[in-house]
Amino acid sequence: MVLHFCSRRRPVSDKVLLVTGGSRGIGAATARLAAAQGWAVAVNYSANSLAADEVVRAIRASGGTAMAVQADVADEAQVLRMFEHIDAKLGRLTGLVNNAGVVDRAQPVAEHSVARWRRLFDINVIGSLLCAREAVRRMGTAYGGAGGSIVNLSSAAARLGSPNEYVDYAAAKAAIDAFTIGLAKEVAPQGIRVNAVRPGLIDTEIHASGGRPNRVEELKAGVPLGRGGTADEVAEVIVWLLSEAASYTTMSLIDVSGAR
Ligand code: NAP
Predict the structure, then answer these.
(1) pTM for this one?
(2) What is the CATH number of the domain that holds 190?
(3) End-to-end CA distance of the chain
(4) Do residues 236 and 33 make contact, with C-beta atoms less than 8 angstroms apart?
(5) Half-sphere exposure of residue 220, counting CA atoms within 13 Å on the CB side?
(6) How confident is the model over 190-235, as pLDDT tens digits?
(7) Ligand 1 contact via 47 beta carbon (within 6 Å)
């Protein structure tokens, strides 16, 4: 694991946030907006250190606090090390955005391999569970924490099912919805709110990673609002859920999908 320290001294903040997959897309927009609202942000990434460093640089240039931290969220040892570094460098976590996620190539289920399913579930589901577990161990009053807020990135796919594209991804996101509901009930007595955001068609590089770089353009006619959304539009909802303004909002699954 590589850790970049882009803050010269340890910040004093009770708003310490980890954004998994914070280097690009919705995660990067969330990291920037949260930092502007006073969060000290750990920007997690998997492979693209240049993109993570650019997010951190932009936050620091605006007077915020951020550091980049590499870890594959599907790897328990890497996740444990990442949380320990955040403990040491930013302080006790009070916010988590479980954003790291992947799709695969559009294929009907009859063409899928077990390796594909394992990758999608390891990153999208196990990765989110792992990070949430470590967050609860820091935020929960039963663990000496002061409470906090967890926002999981689900998807409109969880209710659409994504036939002929990625039913497996949709199933993984439906697991995130159930996890959000259960964890919200479980940790509410410990002062932790847990919510999920379900984006629709959002203009990021995830579509190119699934082999369809023009997917938003191709499908936008089916969106009642008539366009794809932006990462910034999703980040607004995520950062609101993190904030005290959402103090009575927990166990919510919020669609940010233009009515798709
Ligand atoms: P994106 O642009 O493809 O960015 C993905 C981010 O996740 C990158 O920062 C990437 O890091 C990171 N990542 C990927 N695998 C990882 C791993 N194993 N460990 C740690 N980080 C990892 O994706 P996006 O469109 O912003 O999507 C963000 C979330 O929203 C995902 O959960 C996705 O399923 C969900 N979502 C997106 C849409 C959409 O239309 N865009 C719709 C519904 C839901 P590197 O830069 O190092 O590769």
Answers:
(1) 0.96
(2) 3.40.50.720
(3) 39
(4) yes
(5) 12
(6) 999 999 999 999 999 999 999 999 999 999 999 999 999 999 999 9
(7) yes
- Which tokens is 10 given? 């340890």
| Of the candidates 163, 224, 235, 225, the residue with the CA atom closest to the CA atom of residue 199 | 235
Q: How far is residue 82 CA from its own chain's centroid?
A: 15
Q: Domain range holding 12?
A: 3-256
Is 166 noted as a catalytic residue in this protein? no
Give how far Cα 103 sits from Cα of 85, 163, 175, 225, Å: 28, 13, 15, 24
d(CA 147, CA 168): 33
Q: Which of 1, 19, 20, 26 to mutate to test the pocket of ligand 1 (most atoms within 8 A of CB)?
A: 26
Low-confidence ranges of the chain (pLDDT < 70): 1-12
Number of domains in the chain: 1
pLDDT at residue number 60: 98
**Nearest by Cα to 193 from 234, 132, 134:** 132
